[in-house]
Amino acid sequence: MNSERSTQTTERQEPTPLLKLALELGPLGVFFIANSRGEQLAEMFPTLGALGQPIFIATAAFMVAISISLTVSYVMTRHLPVMPLVSGVVVLVFGALTLYLQDELFIKLKPTIVNTLFGSILLGGLFFGKSLLGYVFDSAFKLDAEGWRKLTMRWGLFFFVLALINEIVWRNFSTDFWVDFKVFGFMPITMVFTMMQLPLIQKHSLESEEKS
């Protein structure tokens, strides 16, 4: 009886698709709003004004929002996906450096570092014969070995492309433009790329082979 009760109390349901989307995109939305409304927020809350320019207020809000997102995700599922966890840790570390040193460079480097890290891990795994993407998405869909290898290769290269795009944007455009592009540029690019992988997934799906 006790073991059954403990099992019931530790089990958590997966968040609904809408809630999952909110947990993933919510912090980015907070980042965008806090940056675009930084001056108004500083007037309403003088404590925030002490942080400095809107980008610093947005960075602090981003750190709080992503911490809440990770906490809610863990409470509901009792685990944290690797990619959001790594991204969250980098946000907290580089966000703290941004606020402490009053240098927006660190938060701007976050996408470059995270995407380069993910790309290196995926392509490095392939070098040693491991399609690491399969460990991340195996619960979502089943592919044969060749499918996982190709999908891992594509995502590994795509992460490097995202890192390069981030470098181009923050080095050549204003901070406000970079924030806007981070929210409204990277997400559509990633969604389009994801949709483009559907033919590969369908071709190498083990579930489709079983049905046939």
From TrEMBL:
InterPro entries from the UniProt entry: YciB
Keywords: Cell inner membrane, Cell membrane, Membrane, Transmembrane, Transmembrane helix
Compartments where located: Cell inner membrane
Annotated Pfam families: IspA
Membrane topology: Multi-pass membrane protein
Top-level taxon of the source organism: Bacteria
TM regions (residue ranges): 55-76, 82-101, 113-133, 153-171, 183-202
Keyword Phosphoprotein: no
HAMAP family: YciB (MF_00189)
Family per record: Belongs to the YciB family.
Role: Plays a role in cell envelope biogenesis, maintenance of cell envelope integrity and membrane homeostasis.
Protein name: Inner membrane-spanning protein YciB
